[in-house]
Predict the structure.
Amino acid sequence: MSLPPPRQFCTLLVFCLSLLISLCCVFSRGAWDSDLGGDPDEAAHAVTSLMIRDYLAGGFPNPPMQFAKDYYASFPKVALGHYPPGYYLLAAPLLLASTSVKVFFILQAFLLATLATIVSRSLFKLTSPALAIATGLSVVISPLSLQQTQLVMSDMLLAVFCIWAAVLWGRYLSAPSLCRALIWGCIASAAILTKGSGMGLCLLPPLGTLLAGRWRLIFTWSWWSAAVPVVMIAGPWMIYSTSISKEGMTLLSPAQYFTEALPFYLNATPMVFGWPLTLLIAAGVCHRLVTVFQRRALSPLQASVISMSAGMTLVLLLVPVGLSTRYLLTLVPPLMLAASHGLSLLPWKRNPAQWCPPVLLLIFALAPLQNINLRPMKDVHGFGSAVLISGLPQPGHEKENWLIASDPRGEGAVIAAAAFACPQRAPSLLRVYRGSKELGSSDWMGRGYQQAFGNTAELLEHLDQLQISRVFVDLSVPPDRQQPHELQLFTAMQSANDRWQLAFEQPVIRRPGETGTLRVYRRTSPTTAKAQN
């Protein structure tokens, strides 16, 4: 009988294969060369990371809040406050080596490889090495995971911290100690400081302890000490940002939101994972629930993973932040673990049992990619080219003011491209205004929209007062998503030939198959003295 491969070798194998798959996806499916407009929040994460990078590189030139306000004034896509700082604190030091957006995609690939490695390593003592490796790789090849490597978003980092927290709590339940409890608290704090939904981990210690039959630990100091880092590290931020983060939520109550979220995610699960994998997941989950109902204690790891899943699912169904399949990413690891368990329940014969479950798991995980709509593909181009063609102000030249009118994706893509290409950002030689903020008004979610100006004359006078030198009008926005101020600006640019001239038209691609034009206008006459005063 041959010995199983060493655990360390299997861990390294999973990490290297996962990293290779992730990077291949980034290189071959468009993310590497695309603009940062794949998601309305993508540019915000990138620009906020760049701001912290510049603050570090500048040697802390100003008080933090003052620096952030000045930076936001120049590149109004800074989202610190709406989002916690965890992702930015990780990405900013990496940008010190290179201020290229490609750094983010390499980071995303490393995070996905780490996620798969944690999942696989947690199984090595519980199942065959082949099935453990396959379970880790199934996390990587899930369409949802591959899609997230294409975007500069914090969801991947949150998923890493969530499954890591589950594994750490399982270790604590196996061998309780003050050190393990405090380490768990630090990782849980990191999850909460990455994204507010990390608060779902608060259910993990009590529920995991009960499911594992270790309820007597509740009477120990070490068990309660796990909450200390959460209160001390994550608590102040959550208190500070509560009023700000409310702007990013819908107006529905938790009960109202639940009635919409439950059917949405029930329908999304088989769509994202495919029916074969969904049925395996259901089998694995049902078997664990039967064990719980029979009042049989689960293993520490099983209890912790189930408790983490329960907490994150409650956040998914009750916190009204909007419906999106990407929020399922934190559940990908526990769902793949459930599918792996579901396969192990089948009555395999001795020889096929060594290779059939791993192969089937990988096949089922790949199956959803047959749907062309689920294949990860990012194709956002033209916005960055328009910025470079327009020409950025160089050191020693006068400061310039630009205005971009588009939807959140288009505005974000232009602002991010300008920020990363600008030769001097703090203090900045360029200030970019958002049309959605200057020519209209609404809250973070786009509610309560109002047009700022009643006619084009008022709008043009406002551009004079702001001393705008270039205007970007995005005509690629679908008609049903265009705001009145965008059409008003376009009309103003066409009518004001004495002040504005079309510099060039830039073809843009918003997503695969969705194209259009970005018109860039330049001022042909200086602003009047009255406007400047």
Summary: Strands lie at 400-405, 430-434, 440-441, 450-451, 470-474, 500-511, 514-523. The CA atoms of residues 151 and 414 lie 16 Å apart. The radius of gyration is 25 Å.
